[in-house]
Specification:
The protein is α+β, with helices and mostly antiparallel strands. The chain has 2 domains: about 60 residues, no CATH class; about 200 residues, Jelly Rolls (Sandwich), CATH 2.60.120.620. Helices cover about 30% and strands about 25% of the residues. The chain has 7 helices and 17 strands. It has a 9-stranded antiparallel sheet with strand order 1-2-3-14-10-17-8-7-4. Helix 1 crosses helix 3, helix 2 packs across helix 3 and helix 3 packs antiparallel against helix 4. The longest helix has 16 residues. The protein is elongated, with a radius of gyration of 20 Å. It binds pyridine-2,4-dicarboxylic acid and zinc ion. Pyridine-2,4-dicarboxylic acid binds next to strand 10, strand 15 and strand 17. The site of pyridine-2,4-dicarboxylic acid has 11 residues, from strand 10, strand 15 and strand 17.
């Protein structure tokens, strides 16, 4: 989209109606972004219309939003121009099953072979411990009721299998291999879940300085399904009511250009109802992860 988009009377009217219906400016902005509006143009239109119809208080809200949004950064992105149904990445043909622009979500089919899935599970299984999440205050890790899975991290490049999958991810997402964290494997038993969260770090939290030193913010996530649970265990995006089915070998990618909920990348692992669920997650940083 270019800055040549024009604000029509219909658009003005629509913005007013949203505001009158009690919609928050950030939600109106998100809807406009979802329909393809350039962010700068959309913010300008919001400001103009709200000033004209709703007065100074509403204008202040839009201005505050614009001023408080952290700047957008470059994010990983697969080469999907021309809507290919398959991509040749590194050493494998990968199918494109679903794409969404806002939030940026892409679902891939056959990203891993069945053998690669089984081999990852076998290598991870003896090293599983109860999953921990980052403690905002300290930057350390702790066991958390919101995440009732077991997990482990491979070191980046620690085996030939990790190296192959990492090279494939770097090629798929056009993102330097060295910007990736080591692969994380999670195992959910029936009843286990990962409650909705954002994968980026909250930079306002005191413990985050140490976390961000190792390659800056997370800007993208690839969750790879290592088996197919019998029931439940989808990856859900509550902001857009999307659920990705956990199918062995498939993967879901999403990116977030700023550490802000306006990216609509809130997501979770729905409770597993029957069977087990195994996934491998790759988090991508802005810079080299050390
Ligand atoms: O296992 C999942 O579906 C899932 C859901 C949300 C994994 C993650 N987040 C993650 O590893 O960040
Ligand atoms: Zn997550």
């Amino acid at each position: 989209m270019s800055a040549s988009q024009t604000v029509t009377p219909e658009l003005r009217q629509w913005i007013v109606e949203q505001a009158q219906a009690g919609c928050r400016p950030e939600d109106v902005l998100a809807s406009m972004r979802a329909s393809g509006w350039d962010e700068v143009v959309a913010l300008g239109a919001l400001g103009q219309v709200l000033e004209a119809f709703l007065g100074a208080q509403a204008v202040q809200q839009a201005a505050t939003l614009a001023a408080t949004l952290p700047p957008a950064v470059r994010v990983p992105e697969p080469a999907l121009a021309g809507s290919p149904s398959q991509l040749r990445v590194h050493d494998r043909e990968v199918r494109v099953l679903l794409t969404l622009q806002n939030p940026r979500v892409v679902v891939f089919g056959g990203f891993l072979s069945d053998d690669e899935c089984d081999d990852l599970v076998a290598a991870a299984a003896p090293r599983m411990v109860r999953s921990e999440t980052v403690v905002n205050e300290t930057g350390g890790n702790e066991v958390n009721a919101a995440r009732t899975s077991d997990g482990m991290f491979f070191g980046r490049g620690e085996s030939a299998l990790c190296q192959r999958i990492e090279a494939r991810i770097a090629a798929l997402l056009n993102w330097p291999l060295v910007n990736g964290e080591g692969l994380q494997v999670l195992h959910y038993r029936p009843g286990a879940e990962y409650k909705p969260h954002h994968d980026y770090f909250d930079p306002a939290q005191p413990g985050m300085a140490a976390v961000l030193k190792r390659g800056g913010q997370r800007v993208g996530t690839l969750v790879m399904y290592l088996n197919t649970p019998l029931q439940g265990g989808g990856t859900v995006f509550p902001d857009v009511q999307l659920e990705v089915a956990p199918i062995k070998g498939n993967a879901v990618f999403f990116s977030y250009e700023r550490a802000h909920a306006s990216t609509r990348t809130l997501h979770g692992g729905a409770p597993v109802i029957a069977g087990d669920k195994w996934v491998a997650t790759k988090w991508l940083r802005e810079g080299e992860f050390i």
